[in-house]
Write the structure tokens for this entry.
Amino acid sequence: MSIDYIKISQQEKEQLSRLKRFTGIDQWNILCRWAFCVSLNEPTAPPNAEIKSDSNVEMSWKIFAGKFEDLYLDLLKMRCLDDGLTLNDENLHKQFRLHLKRGIGYLSSNKNMRSICDLTKLIL
């Protein structure tokens, strides 16, 4: 089971662009990793929402996850099981996108997110 490619929505692209300006992190995949982990940290499952992929931002799972691809996939699988979902490719991909969408929304709506230091304060 795996995720091959991720394509984000235009709204998510705009949110990530603002985060790039504020944090100085210029790589989509790094910001997406943060967003994914922020969402995983929430106790509730992400709401079932329409997943759009209408932007020109696309990355492979290997680019998203880097050398920790097994870890990110295992975290996603554990979360799916915790949320009572069957482990299959469709659920993994959908839940990944829902977590990514929610995490990007959380990060971009944080009014205190004005620097990379503010991003790192999320883990303290």
Observations:
- The beta strands are 5-7, 58-60.
